[in-house]
Amino acid sequence: MEPVLRRFRNRLRRRLASITNLLGKLRGTLAPRAQHVRSQRMCPFCGLITSCYKTSCLECGKSLKPA
After folding, report:
1. Which helix (DSSP H) or strand (DSSP E) does residue 1 occupy?
2. N or C end of the chain: smaller count of CB under 10 Å?
3. SS3 for the chain, per residue?
């Protein structure tokens, strides 16, 4: 009786492991990726889009408000 239970247990473990792997792959593809992208801003004077890290406009040189 013990060999039968051992085979059943091993088969059950393999099935559960494969289901867990499949769910992990699905979760990885469906989960949104974390993006560390800061938004850009537009210069109110000339309209050039500038990075948020910049303190002044790259086109006209006027100072931008802190973000």
Report:
1. none
2. N
3. CHHHHHHHHHHHHHHHHHHHHHHHHHHHHHCCCCCCCCCCEECCCCCCEECCCCCECCCCCCECCCC
pLDDT (average), residues 44-56: 87
Model-wide pTM > 0.85? no
Does pLDDT of 30 surpass 80?
no
> What pLDDT is stored for residue 34 in this prediction?
59
CA distance 26 to 43: 42
Please tell me whether residue 49 adopts helix, strand or coil conformation.
strand
